[in-house]
Design a protein that fits this description.
By secondary structure, the protein is α+β, with helices and mostly antiparallel strands. Helix content is 50%, strand content 18%.
Length: 775
């Protein structure tokens, strides 16, 4: 009997090739989306791990900031197995410009012979040569940002004046994420070159000039213990671990993972609806076969097993295809992080993830197959053999009466009335269409948010200005003179930012000169500071530190792990949205430091082109000004996301279309007698086609009517998830308006028309004599 069950299941699959192919494609598409989401999430850290292995990277890196720190004591710590060669790093105001793009640089001094342990990996070109005092190797990520080429001549913008260099190679280190994740980016020169640029500097004596060294821990030692051991080194020492760097590198793919997970859930649910529709129709179309099986001795369980085997076998095959397709597609999502790390983007095969994907797909197929299969097994042989009952003409439904009352064309009334024939199938088809509309609404929400942010950066927590400019090595007085002389600069706000702490938790402290309330940040509560001793906190800092408006806090400015720093008493007067994460805004005179402002928030004159203003500032400053046009930055991010969003929407609308196609095919099969009767009473083939299209069009319109309100709710929720993941906090983003949502109606109708083309052709080509020969 087991052999008979398998033969029957295989025979049924071969007997309905079109429906099997459609079902296979839908399951494979859902499995692919799920596989890509899981693979990208699991592989997000793989590019960094490959880099660390290739560079023989350290487990942790020590940076000395005080002259009393003694890094030579590291070799005496029992938990450390290997200590690398210390090297100097200068964090003075350096930059490299290529055209209108500029990148902040930290200069690293390294010799021509790279060490075996914890060395940078050259991704293009070569390493520094002996005697190459005018050679430079640039961070790979920075090279991508700047569009540099090996052999290119560049000027290093430095406080002591510009210095020419030849770019001989690009490299990346496992000790620090490359640009644009980290700013400034590392660039490597020979130690003697670095010392000539910074004469008289004692490295390791301050935050701008540090000594850095990598260490390898003994097996089994957790890197967290290093923070306690740092006290034995004396002075001021900072520590970063490879786990920290890895987690930061994963953030490149964070939004992609969230998008893929959201679309995977939608895709799997929509696929489940198709499966339920297909299986339900399959049971109805195979009632005679079920009756015959029972008549020859099949038990109810065996009948159910036949149906389950067909779909579970199909889901397993489609799931395998989806897993393989996911492995092929995932590298495209990992490419961005792989490119800046200078390694391959290949996603590693994870048997556990493959099993999870197959298990989820199989469970969904099994759940949606189980109920109709169980019901089929419980049908008596006599009832099953009376298959003609399902082909009787349907009476006039409520939908049909409504359509007639509205005086719709007779063709439309005929197509609409039959939607009530199988209400559960109709409902599931509408839900599948609604899911596609929900995802499209969400995508339009992303687009409308970007569109609004182009003119108002505060929508996503950006500053309320057109341009943000860093003066780098340019003196503050000269920078202000350039800004004052430009007629298209309406106003600007000088600022200085630095690190600060509350207890042991650090954050960014920004001090501004001028009116912080005009133009206005995206305030959630209160206002921006207007006097010394007042402060406003970002929503992320409020959440992390538990600070509320009205609180008085003590902020520690300067110092380090071995120094308490300077305490500043601040009263919190406002809470604002910020894309910069945990930061606090104060007036400049609140910060006890006489360092000049380094950044300028610029508002351009109405009607002026921000890019033209930025170019004029670059030219007037001899390349030292580093203006960022905020609208251009937003547009670049939008261009990165568009292909992903568009592709996933196409997949879900395709799934919805296949659902509608499958539903219509089943309906046409059940209504053969109805169509024959219609033809016999004078309906032309074009009218038959029109009735099929009318039914599909109504389903599409109902799907849009249900999907748009639900999509607006989902959009609000997912935008809050994305903004929270970015450190901005909830409540940002713009819901799409009527003009954004209006195109969903014709798109849904086009999908309905395409999905109805084959069923309409089958119905219109039906021969009356053949359909009625058993009447």
């Amino acid at each position: 009997m087991t052999r008979a069950i398998f033969r029957k299941a295989f025979s049924d699959i071969r007997g309905r090739p079109l429906q099997v192919v459609l079902l296979f494609l839908v399951i494979a598409a859902a499995a692919t989306t799920l596989s890509v989401a899981l693979t990208v999430q699991a592989s997000a850290s793989k590019p960094y791990e490959r880099l660390r292995e290739e560079s023989n990277g350290a487990d942790a890196w020590f940076n000395s900031f005080g002259s009393s720190a003694d890094l030579s004591r590291l070799k005496d710590l029992e938990i450390i197995e290997e200590v690398g060669e210390p090297y100097p790093v200068s964090f003075e105001n350096y930059g490299i410009r290529n055209g209108d793009t500029k990148q902040q640089i930290a200069l690293v001094g390294m010799g021509p012979d790279l060490p075996d342990f914890d060395h940078p990996v050259v991704t293009r070109g070569r390493w520094l040569g002996a005697g190459g005092r005018d050679e430079i190797v640039v961070d790979s990520g920075a090279a991508n940002v700047l569009g540099l080429k090996v052999g290119q001549q560049i000027d290093l913008l430095a406080p002591g004046g510009n210095r020419p260099f030849t770019v001989v190679g690009f490299a990346v280190t496992a000790s620090r994420t490359p640009a644009p994740i980290s700013d400034p980016a590392f660039a490597y020169v020979l130690p003697e070159t670095l010392y000539s640029i910074t004469p008289g500097v004692v490295y390791g004596s301050g935050f701008d000039h540090t000594m850095r060294v990598g260490v390898r821990l003994r097996e089994g030692v957790d890197s967290g213990v290093l923070f306690g051991e740092a006290r034995n080194l004396g002075g001021q020492v900072g520590i970063s671990t490879w786990e920290n760097v890895r987690e930061v590198s994963k953030e490149i793919n964070q939004f992609d993972v969230i998008f893929l997970q959201v679309f995977a859930v939608f895709g799997l649910f929509a696929s489940g609806l198709i499966i339920a529709n297909a299986v339900g129709g399959q049971v109805l179309s195979q009632m005679r076969d079920i009756g015959v099986l029972k008549a020859i001795g099949f038990t109810p369980r065996q009948v159910s097993v036949v149906l389950l085997l067909q779909n579970l076998g199909l889901s397993l095959a489609a799931g395998v295809v989806g897993v393989l397709a996911g492995l092929l597609i995932a590298p495209f999502f990992l490419q961005r992080s792989a490119d800046i790390l200078g390694v391959s983007s290949g996603a590693s095969f994870n048997p556990m993830l493959a099993m999870i994907t197959l298990a989820i797909v199989t469970i969904i197929v099994g759940v949606f197959t189980l109920v109709p299969a169980w019901r089929a097994g419980r049908v008596s042989a006599i009832a099953a053999l009376d298959a003609e009952n399902d082909s009787r003409s349907a009476g006039v439904s409520r939908l049909g009466k409504l359509a007639a009352a509205l005086r719709l064309p007779r063709v439309a009334v005929v197509g609409i009335k039959d939607l009530s024939r199988r209400p559960l199938r109709t409902t599931m088809t509408i839900v599948a269409l609604a899911i596609a509309v929900v995802t499209a609404t969400f995508s339009l929400g992303i687009e409308s948010t970007f569109d609004k942010t182009m003119s108002d950066p505060t929508v996503i927590g950006g500053p309320p200005f057109d341009i943000g400019a860093d003066r780098d090595a340019l003196p503050d007085a000269e920078a202000r003179a350039i800004l004052d002389a430009n007629p298209d600069v309406q106003s600007y706000l000088p600022s200085f930012h630095t690190g600060a702490r509350i207890g042991n938790q650090g954050f960014e402290l920004w001090g501004f000169e001028g009116d912080l309330n005009n133009p206005r940040w995206a305030m959630r509560e209160g206002r921006m500071p207007t006097a010394r001793g007042e402060a406003a906190v970002s929503t992320q800092l409020k959440r992390s530190f538990g600070i509320d408006v009205g609180d008085t806090v003590t902020v520690l400015y300067g110092g380090g792990p071995q120094s308490e720093g300077t305490p500043i008493e601040l009263t919190i007067v406002g809470r604002f949205v910020s894309a910069e994460g945990e930061n606090m805004h104060v007036t400049r005179d609140t910060i006890p430091d006489d360092e000049a402002p380094t950044d300028y928030m610029i508002v351009v004159r109405e009607g002026a082109d921000p890019r033209a203003v930025a170019d004029a500032l670059i030219e007037a400053s001899r390349g030292n000004f580093d203006p960022e046009v905020l609208s251009e930055t937003i547009d670049e991010i939008r261009k990165e996301w568009r292909p992903v969003i568009l592709g996933l929407n196409v997949v879900l609308f395709t799934i919805a279309g296949i659902n509608l196609l499958s539903s219509q095919l089943l309906s046409i099969r059940e209504r053969r007698r109805d169509f024959a009767v219609l033809k016999a009473v004078g309906f032309t083939p074009s009218q038959i086609v029109g009735s099929v299209f009318a039914g599909s069009a109504l389903l599409a319109l109902v799907g849009v009517a249900v999907g748009i309100p639900l999509g607006l709710v989902v959009t609000r929720i997912v935008l809050d998830i994305l903004s929270s993941a970015a450190g901005i906090g909830p409540g940002v983003g713009v819901l799409p308006g009527v003009l954004w949502l209006a195109p969903l109606v014709p798109i849904a109708l086009i999908v309905a028309a395409l999905a109805s083309a084959i069923p309409a052709r089958i119905a219109s080509g039906l021969k009356v004599a053949e359909a009625l020969r058993y009447e």
